[in-house]
């Protein structure tokens, strides 16, 4: 599905196109719009493939629950503010406000709305190909649309990883997921034992969230210590519904075509001969992320882990002059909503100054 919101569709060349729709993209759009650059945000397509990959518009924050660490949103009721701030056509599809600070989807809708309010144009499509060898740059979208822009801000974020087991692939949509918040409330997971793999903040968040629905949550982690922040790890360890399986990995998801996931085989990382089968009706991977850089076709310099390389300290410059990168697509270290938004602002300022230096506005 593709569509635009805003007034024109810019048949000629644009000043700045922002690819992505997480906090980095919207912060960049707000700054670029207020600098009169008339930005176009290409926010991603609403497709089944993007749903399965976890790359739908509004990014990873739209797949989380409460956001407790974004400054400015202390716990408290925001229902009336959300009703008044967000366009009614989108607000009606959002779940009711939970009365506890801000949720990820709410925060993203507010950022998107703020960008729209300052005149940002939005295209609901994926960029599938770029040509950074030509000027103005050329971008090709999934539905064939071609756009030209003097500058580009890449803010396409990252997506959740899976272990890579063929059995994981086989049962996707039948009990295998990398997003508890999206899928956890489905009937197949309610009052049943479930398993989460990982030891970072995502695994803590997913297992805590799932414990509201599941009878038991097994948290399988390959080491004897969590990587997660202490506050989130402590919450998990105090939760009686969560059983941690330390020094363990899942090496097979078990099930059938009729029933989907019925269990997992868990193997010890200390004694490889030791394994057990856990009867579960859901398997959730929470083992880190991969940056969304494939569509760049090797035209920007990447790091070893395929994140976009910032070529100048404290700047959002990439290896191509006029192309800037912001948010998780260029950050495998901090990966927070606030740092992504901060670098989105930096990218818009960098783009604005670069465009001015070239006499483009
Ligand atoms: P992460 O911090 O990279 O943790 C990934 C976890 O998965 C690690 O515990 C890792 O084990 C494990 N893992 C990786 N590959 C594995 C494999 N092949 N088999 C088994 N286990 C594997 O990723 P994350 O938890 O997604 O967090 C990413 C970032 O987002 C972090 O900066 C985090 O703070 C942030 N985040 C914040 C919140 C929040 O504040 N609400 C929520 C979610 C995420 P090892 O520990 O052994 O390496």
SSE string, helix = H, strand = E? EEHEHEHHEHEEEEEHEHEHEHEEEEEEEH
Radius of gyration: 21 Å
| Principal-axis shape | globular
**Beta strand %:** 15-25%
What's the total count of β strands? 20
Structural class: alpha/beta
Q: How helix-rich are the residues, as a percent range?
A: 25-40%
Characterize the main sheet: 8 strands, mixed
Poorly predicted regions: none
- Overall pLDDT confidence: 93
Question: What is the terminal-to-terminal distance?
Answer: 33 Å
Treating each run of at least 4 consecutive H or I residues as one helix, how many helices? 10
The bound ligands are: NADP nicotinamide-adenine-dinucleotide phosphate
How does this model look, in words?
The protein is of the alpha/beta class. It contains ten helices and 20 strands. The strands form five sheets. Strands 1, 2, 3, 6, 7, 8, 9 and 20 form an eight-stranded mixed sheet that branches. A five-stranded parallel sheet has the order 11-18-12-13-14, with helices on one face. Strands 15-16-17 form a three-stranded antiparallel sheet. α8 (201-210) runs parallel beside α9 (230-237). It is globular and about 65 Å long. The chain starts with a strand and ends with a helix. The structure holds NADP nicotinamide-adenine-dinucleotide phosphate (NAP).
